[in-house]
Amino acid sequence: MTVVSQVILKADDELRYPSNGELKSIADFLQTGNIRVSIAETLTESENKIVEQSSRKLWQLRPDFIAAGGNAYGQKQRAQCLRDYGWYLRLVTYGILAGDTDPIESIGLIGAREMYNSLGVPMPGMVAAMRCMKEVSLSLLSAEEADIAEPYFDYLIQGMDSVV
User: What is the pLDDT of residues 75-128, one digit of tens each?
Assistant: First the structure.
């Protein structure tokens, strides 16, 4: 949910007009709109590069994942890992655009434990993968853009880390 939606729903629930502080939070959100869109465009246009470089970094850190018996051993398993990278990158862009972590939480983290546990995917590996993705993604952004994007990657990583 966006900052605007949150303010409106909260004020409506309390049968009041938005407060000056809430109106300021909407103004701040709107002022950062262009840069949030720019970040989302960069990440979207660079998805293949981000996924490729992130996975390469992860395999260097954890070669056991792609060795015989590893969770990413074999073409099918590796392709599924790469698919998940893209999916989580997309969730981060949703959060950045909304100015809120709710899309990451509601679309991505809820149910992650059950899904990964049922598939036998080690969560520490997913956390390491998301850290690699964060590092590669932020390297493609300006310092100002990276400052805006970083908390959304951190939220995802923290949420996955608590899924263990």
Answer: 777 777 778 889 899 999 999 999 999 989 888 787 776 677 777 777 788 899
Q: Could you report the per-residue pLDDT of 16-39, keeping only the tens digit for each?
A: 999 999 999 999 999 999 999 999
Q: Is the domain of 87 the same as that of 11?
A: no
Q: Is the same domain home to 63 and 26?
A: no
Domain that holds residue 47: 34-161
Q: What's the rounded Cα separation, in Å, for the pair 52 and 95? A: 22
Locus of tokens 């981060």: 92
Q: Do 80 and 118 have their domain in common?
A: yes
